[in-house]
Amino acid sequence: MARHLLDHASTSPLRPVAAETLDLWNDLAARGELGDPSRIHAEGMQARVALETAREQVAGLVGARSREIIFTSGSTESIATATWGAVRRSGERGHQPHIVLSAVEHSAVRRSSEQFAGALGGSVTTVGVDTTGRVDVDELLAAVDPATSLVHLQWGNHEVGTLQPVAEVTARCRELGVLVHIDASHAVGQVPVDFSGVGADLLSFSGHRFGAPSGTGVLVVRRGLRLEPLLQGSDQERGRRAGLEPLIAILGLGAVAGVLDPLRLEREENQARGLIGAIANLAGDIDDMAVLGDPDPDHRLPHIACFTVGGVEPQAVLLGLDQRGIAAHSGSACASEEIEPSPVLEAMGADAHRSLRFSVGWSSSGADVEALGRELGPIIQSLRQLAR
Q: What are the CA-CA distances from residue 93 to residues 86, 112, 229, 340 (Å)?
């Protein structure tokens, strides 16, 4: 049975250019021709050149300088590093840390903020959102005070896709002298991201969500901003992240970044919008199923759509789809004994227990949507009949 992945927002298949790059460099490593990029012997210098080439490729993808790129293990580490550095910076200036974030941020943002600010005697202010999942700029800035260490804001939401006013927030925070971190985990590789143009201080993302190897991530740090590293030890990444870089995986990330030129990115974005539009149309034909987030597709990420679905448990729908070869996701998380409601949907005032998220990516096609169209309605209808 053919499988249809409609959960690219969780992770996306490895692109061929990444697989080819991994094969090439793994062969060199197996022959002992690839060394530690921090060493000055021939094997090390070859690795260094390759690493810096990948850094330039990644910088080009997000509109940054190569020296602003720090390689990490993923978004979670990048977010934690940004948060730790910001709260430590506050301490050095004699302030207890204070972090401001929106109520729809990813758990990695929320938990890092609570842990690091709390450990240093500080606090976190959470600002609500409207029914589309968008934060109000004035309300967010009203929570900022002279001692604020950091403002977190995602580029686009990971469940409903709503885009946030990142450029306006960064501009106003800059006027206030407050650091801004943008979680662009679901935007990079999907829409144009211009770090320099948006004016942020920090930006994080992972490679695996747009077809690069898992275990690769990036923290972009504005030129001139010095933050204490989260990982202490040796002086890799110019002293900003200790530990030997996962070189071969990073080279795969660089290869993917290198092929995502503006024309290809635009083509993939348009394809994603078309597929998600088709999913929205078929969902619209099912009773008691409605799209969440901003109703205007231009105000959402192109590859994500989330729907409420009445009268059924989403996990049952997901299991039914999986049995028929379709992988999707729900905002509600399965815990050991119960279903945890989605904090994002709760913040929006939506039903936090009954949602389905479909997301597409570089390898998606009309066949995936056609398969969903055949199966989704009958599964929901059958489950509703059983619940009567």
A: 11, 21, 17, 39
